[in-house]
Amino acid sequence: MAVIHISRAEAANDFDGLIVRAGMGDEIIIDDTSPVVLKRAVRQPGRLLSEIIASAEARGSNATLDEDFGRDLKEVINSHQEPLDPPAWD
């Protein structure tokens, strides 16, 4: 894992290559007037359902997970199956 210091102009010449390097674990510091760091994101595991329920109860939520919860959740997920269509960047 390397730390690479590079100017903004140099970064613009091969930004795709820098993304690949960051994905492999290198840390890229684009350093002109205000440094920007490009590095691989660390995924954090989600919370346990028991933690979420405890948090909801601590906040006074009256939501319940009844026997139909799983079916309802599947209906919500299946009703939003359209593909992500992000806006095109200029």
Structure description:
The protein is an alpha+beta fold and 90 residues long. The chain folds into two domains: 3-38; 49-78, no CATH class. 39% of the residues lie in helices and 12% in strands. It has helices at 8-13, 15-23, 49-58, 69-78, and strands at residues 3-6, 27-30, 36-38. A three-stranded mixed beta sheet has the order 1-2-3. A hairpin with a 5-residue loop joins strand 2 (27-30) and strand 3 (36-38). The radius of gyration is 22 Å and the shape is elongated. The mean pLDDT is 85.
Shape by Cα distribution: elongated
- Total individual domains: 2
Whole-number average pLDDT? 85
Total of DSSP H or I helical runs spanning 4+ residues: 4
- Helical content stands at 25-40%
Number of strands: 3
Spatial strand order of the main sheet: 1-2-3
The biggest beta sheet is recorded as: 3 strands, mixed
Separation of the first and last Cα atoms: 33 Å
Helix and strand sequence: EHHEEHH
Question: Strand portion, in percent?
Answer: 5-15%
Salient structural properties:
3-stranded mixed beta sheet; elongated; 3 strands; alpha+beta; 90 residues
Write a concise synopsis of the structure shown.
With 90 residues, the chain is an alpha+beta fold.
